Structures are given as C-alpha cells and as structure tokens.
Amino acid sequence: MKKIVLCNLFFIMGLLLFAQPAPVKNVILLITDGTSTSLLSCARWYQTYLDSTKTTLAIDPYIRGLVRTNSSDAPIGDSAPTTSCYMTGMPSQTGFVSTYPVKTDHDLVPVDATRAYQPLTTLMEAAHRRQGKSAGIVCTCEFTHATPADCAAHTYSRGKYSMIAPQMVYNDLDVVIAGGTSYLKEREREYLKSKGYNLFMDDLQGMRNCHKGPFWALYRPSSIEYYLESDHKDVPSLAESTQKALEILSQNPNGFFLMVEGSKVDWAAHDNDAKSALIEFLEFDKACQVAFDFAKKDGQTLVVVVPDHGTGALTIGNTKSNHGYDRLSLQQIMQPIDNYKLPLWSMGEKLKATETSEWPDLFKTYFDIDIQPSEIQYLSSASDYSKSSMPKEDRQNNLSMVKMLSQVIYGSRTYFGFTTFGHTIENVFFAMYHPQNDVLQGCPTNIELHQYMSKQLGLTGVLEEMNEENFVDHRKVFAGYDYKIDSLDKYHYRFTAKYKKNTLVFDSYTNYVTVNKKTYDIESLLVYMPINKTFYVPKELYRYLLLK
C-alpha cells in the first residue's frame, strides 16, 4: 500500500514539475515613461474621438493589474531608480542608474549601507552575458537618458552622460535605435566599427536597408522630436523602430531581450501638455501592437508593458467642468485640442525668441487661439523670457515660459487638468502577454515584477551571483598589489597595477584590459564611481597580473 501511495505521489509531483512553463526565449519590455493610469483613459477616449471604430487600445486585452513603484527612500519615484528596480530588483534613489542606493533614515526597503554605489547587474546584461541572448534598446529620447541607461549602464547621477555613453557602447548591445548623435563620441564610434557594427547617423534609409546586426541608429543631436511636430520623413516612428529591432534581434537562436521606451509621454506630462502626451502614448501603443503581434506568432516571447511612474496626473475634467460635466459630449471635450499643432515646449521656444508683438500671429497659426492682452502680459513675465520689459529680479520666482503657457492653453480653454508638473505617487498599470498565459496579476511591487521577469528568463539568483563576481571594490581585488588611479579628464579614469614585470592597465567604463600592451576582452564593464573613488571590477581581474 505504501509503495502505491509513494508511486502516486511521485507521479503527481512529476506531472506538476512537467506542467511548469519553461523559461521564455525572448522578453520585450515596453516602458511608457511617466504615464499615469488616468492618461491611459484619456488616450483611449482621444483615439475614439479621432476614429469612432477604435474603442480599445492595443494593450487593453493584456492589462493585468497595477504596479506599486517607488524609490528606495521615497514613495514618489524618479525614472532612474524606478526602472533600475525593474532591471535589477533593487529600488534605488533619485538619479541612481542601476546602482545600489545609500542608506537613509527613511528607507522604504531594506538597504545594506556597505553596498552603497555598487553597480547592479541588469536583466539585459545577465541575459546577454550569461545566456548569449541579443540585447536591444529602442527609445525616442537620447540613448544616455535614464530609462535606456538603466538597462546597460551604472552611475549615481543620471545626468552624467559622459559616464553613461561609453558604458552603453562597451556593453556590446546588438541594436540601439534612439536619439543622441552628439553623445556618441569618436572613440566609441571607432570601437563599434572595430566590432563590426553598422552606424546610421540620421540615416533612416540606411537603417531600413539593414537586415543584419549589430547596428546603432541615432537621430538628432539629442532627443527625437515629438511626433506632433515630426515630418516623419527622416526619423522612424516608435513602431517602425520596434519592428526593425525585432527583425534583427530575432535572428539569434538563443533569443533576445529588447527594451522599448515611449520616452516623451513623460516629457509632455512634465510640461502639462495634454495633446503631446496623448499622441506620444498612442504612438507607443502602436509599438506595443508590433510586440504583441510578434510574440503571438513566435510562441516563445514574453511581453511586459509598464510605466515607471506617473507624471502630471492628467485628467479629463478640471475646474471648468465643475458643473455640467455629465452633459459634455466627447466632441466638446476633445475638439479644442484638435487645433493644437505644436508641442508646448516648441511653442515656448518660439515665444522666447520673439517680441510680444509677434505672439498673436504665433498663437493663431499654431493653436487657432486669439490670445488676449492680459495673457500676453502674463506670459511675458516668465522667468526665462529674456525680452521681457519686467526686470529679471522681479520674475525670478515665476514659472518658466512652457509651464506658464500650459496654464494659458489648457487652463481656461479645455477640460483637461493636471495636479503637478512633477511625478505622482499613484500605482501604474501593467500589461502582459505570455505564450502559456503564465502572467503576473494583482498589485505587485516593482521588486516582484523584476522577480517575475527573472524567473521567466530562468535567471533567478543569477544577477546576485554576477554582482558578487563582476562588481567588486578594487581595493579587495588588488589587495597587496601596487596600483594607482589617474584622472584622464573630469569623468574618465585609468587604473594601473604592477606585479614583477607585468603592467595591467584599464580605463573606466570599458570592457577590456591591457597587460604589457596586449589587450584582453572581459565579460563585464569596468565601472568607476568618482563619488567614493572606487573601481568596481571582476573579482578575478588580478589574475591578469600573473600572466606569463
């Protein structure tokens, strides 16, 4: 009898084990930066207004719940630490890019003070280095911006592009389609060319004709312009970029990890620019459709769609609709913004460059608005309007032109509202497609979302191992050896160590070392943190000093 029971038990356990979905081959992570859940609703209604047959978004069938997203020490998160958590499993602090936070007296998660400033391995790095998967980044901001940087770079200050750019290059990503031609310096360009990359600088046709990687395609000196003002002839849409990245990355039999960011939803929301935010999100939704279509056809791909945080708290409904809100038609709500032909940011730049006498024509041309004298006077007091007749010291506490413009354009002329120019504390939506429907649901934390993706990739525990192997304080690695660190410039540093006749040299943010003028590639970035004067390097790096 016992034998029968045991046999049945083992049989059931075997079935359960067999029933567990195998790790997915590919992951497409789509991040719509700064997208409040309320913006999701606004965008759906705006799409229906534009085309009455379109009553749902591409992501609607796959929405699974809400994500609690925060920094390590604050409930309202910044893009750098919130996406860092999706990528590394550790919420961090404002400005920190996939880097361990500093302990404070108000942390929301356990923080180990001894690990402050340690680079943290990302899912993209682990899938690329450990599993041989291809890695790709698509975004509309510059490739050095916080969210793309969180995938393949490490720093305590998201604005230090000179530290971030080389890391993105030396991490050997297979596809990068983004803004930022000015941030790819000559040394990095030469490295990419030496590794067989195609480089397309403001060359859309070149990218379209490329059918094999690896390649970088960058457009505009910094970010790609808002879709509302793009002529669509020389820059790709986010959907086209996603399609091209999938074409290249899917050629790897080991699979791929692709991150796609709808970058400028957040930028528009910071300006309280409803029209631009809605259009940027709808363009992002088209990229999501590309991802879902690929995943359903492929059968081995997980798709995750999630914002990193909310921004602005856009609503349909403001003080203008305090009364009679229930009798407003969709036409009444949406029609005013139909005439808005320019992002507020660009309009603000035009206003700052001209005299107030020219403003009425600009407002009529780009917004079909008859601007009032009182509004001109108000806008002319913007803190950054150099042509103002008002002394600068009397304007120093005023808002910038673009933020004052949002109040003029939207405050009394539309039914759209915002509560802040900053980020918000709200939970954000998430959507998923899994080939075996093994999806996360409910209201997980950002840590739990990371853990889910790690499990689906078969990488549970691997990132922690890689942290211990690849990002070790140089003082521990080279204890007992003669070494020095020299500053090459404001952001770059060189490490030199000597042992007997051997001299080991490497530079910050690269992936190779030189021993007696012979170069060796390594499988990790060599990251220097100027703030604590520490190189973080593989723990076995000292062995290169012992080479014969």
Q: How would you describe this protein?
A:
The chain is of the alpha/beta class and 548 residues long. It folds into three domains: 325 residues, Alkaline Phosphatase, subunit A (3-Layer(aba) Sandwich); 89 residues, no CATH class; 76 residues. It is built from 20 helices and 20 strands. The strands form four sheets. The protein has a nine-stranded mixed beta sheet, sandwiched between helices. A hairpin with a 2-residue loop joins strand 17 and strand 18. Helix 9 runs parallel beside helix 11 and helix 13 crosses helix 17. The model has no long low-confidence stretch (mean pLDDT 94).
Break the fold down into its secondary structure elements and pairings.
Layout: H1 2-19, E1 26-32, H2 37-50, E2 63-67, H3 79-88, H4 123-131, E3 134-142, H5 146-152, H6 161-170, E4 175-179, H7 186-194, E5 198-201, H8 204-208, E6 215-219, H9 238-249, E7 256-262, H10 264-270, H11 274-298, E8 301-306, E9 310-311, E10 315-316, H12 330-338, H13 344-352, H14 359-367, H15 373-379, H16 392-395, H17 401-410, E11 416-417, E12 423-424, E13 428-433, H18 446-457, H19 462-470, E14 472-473, H20 474-477, E15 482-487, E16 493-499, E17 502-507, E18 510-515, E19 518-529, E20 534-537
Helix pairs in contact: 2-11, 3-5, 3-18, 9-11, 10-11, 13-17
